[in-house]
Amino acid sequence: MKTILIIGACGQIGSELVPALQSLDFDAVYASDKKKPPRELLEKFHSFHYLDVLDYDLLDNLVKDNNIDTIFHLASLLSAKSEKYPQMAWNLNMNGLLNVLEVGRKYNLKRIIWPSSIAVFGPTTPKRNTPNETILQPTSIYGITKVAGELLCKYYFNRYGLDVRSVRLPGIISSETLPGGGTTDYAVEIFYEAIQNNQYTCFLEKDTILPMLYMKDCIKALIHLMEADSVKLKHRIFNLTGVSFSCEQLADEIKKHIPNFSIKYQPDERQLIADSWPQSIDDSLARIEWGWEHAYNLEELTIDMLQCLRKRLL
Ligand code: SER
């Protein structure tokens, strides 16, 4: 049994992770964010607390008062937004994580789960089937904070025995909450625009291939990682992926369901970030050490996304 705190609960992942955790047999699930949840999200949360993760005292009190033993720390500035505000990205992504690790150390928490990203890789990393252990020389500030974050997590594990676990998430495709400020966001926006306007202007080139994961698989991965037997974990940080495709392949898949959908390509500064990332990821370590398996391929996630979004938007 666990008492779980989710930090960044109103974001793309948090807004779906909280209800998923609430439906399982845990003692309590506390949602927190510095943003006020929109009404429909607030109605889904069993409890909600205001928390700016940069405010250490507030975090400390929340953990102490509610006997939290597990934290999902999801609050972070994504890649494209981080490039606009590099100093803010460093502050939130690094000091937020440091606060969470510190509170974890102080109260001897059972688990901390923190997502890293494919952004840890850079132009010198092998681009295809990128291994877990490889060159980490990112060129984006977001990637730099994720590499430093990974090292910090490993440090807290080695130095203090804090059970921190992480997956390097690829682009996450989901229908409930829009991502904010990422480079892989096109793969979500395209569905909204296809359904509402039959057309989309993509901010990446049509042949840009990136690794992606459907939200239902992402939630499954985060919960499995939390529950994985620590004896079996030889690593702390795991590559994770579902499927890789180009912008054009995704558009073609959508056209199978919306034949009059059309797409234009107007690459902007996010192209540079995308070009520095791998096209496909080797996540065999996660499969071996904690039984990770994805379920959704491109065809299946397209059908599910269109169904979920039609229900929500039309
Ligand atoms: N989806 C993220 C981004 O594009 C990658 O971690 O920033």
Describe what you observe in this structure.
With 314 residues, the chain is α/β, with parallel strands linked by helices. It has two domains: 3-170 and 233-239, 3-Layer(aba) Sandwich (Rossmann fold); 172-211 and 242-313, Alpha-Beta Complex (UDP-galactose 4-epimerase, domain 1), CATH 3.90.25. Helices cover 43% and strands 17% of the residues. It is built from twelve helices and 13 strands. The protein is globular, with a radius of gyration of 19 Å. Serine is lined by residues 78-79, 117-119, 142, 169, 171, 182-184.
Outline the secondary-structure elements.
Elements: E1 3-7, H1 14-22, E2 28-33, H2 39-44, E3 48-50, H3 56-65, E4 70-73, H4 79-84, H5 86-106, E5 111-113, E6 116-117, H6 141-160, E7 164-169, E8 171-173, H7 186-197, E9 199-202, E10 209-214, H8 215-227, E11 237-239, E12 243-246, H9 247-255, E13 262-265, H10 270-275, H11 284-290, H12 298-313
Parallel strand pairs: 1-2, 1-4, 2-3, 4-5, 5-7, 6-7, 7-11, 8-10, 9-13
Antiparallel strand pairs: 10-12
Helix pairs in contact: 1-8, 5-6, 7-9, 7-12
Looking at the structure, the CATH topology of the largest domain is Rossmann fold
- Cα(first) to Cα(last) distance is 40 Å
Q: List cofactors, ions and other ligands.
A: serine
Q: Low-confidence parts, pLDDT < 50 over ≥5 residues?
A: none
What is the fourth-level CATH superfamily of the largest domain? Answer: NAD(P)-binding Rossmann-like Domain
Instruction: Outline the biggest β-sheet.
Output: 8 strands, parallel
Q: How many beta-strand segments?
A: 13
Structurally, how many domains make up the residues? 2
CATH architecture of the largest domain: 3-Layer(aba) Sandwich
SS strand fraction: 15-25%
Judged by helices, strands and strand pairing, the structural class is alpha/beta
| SSE succession | EHEHEHEHHEEHEEHEEHEEHEHHH
Averaged pLDDT: 98
User: CATH class of the largest domain, please?
Assistant: Alpha Beta
- The value of Rg in angstroms is 19 Å
Shape: globular
Number of helices: 12
Please give the share of residues in helix.
40-55%
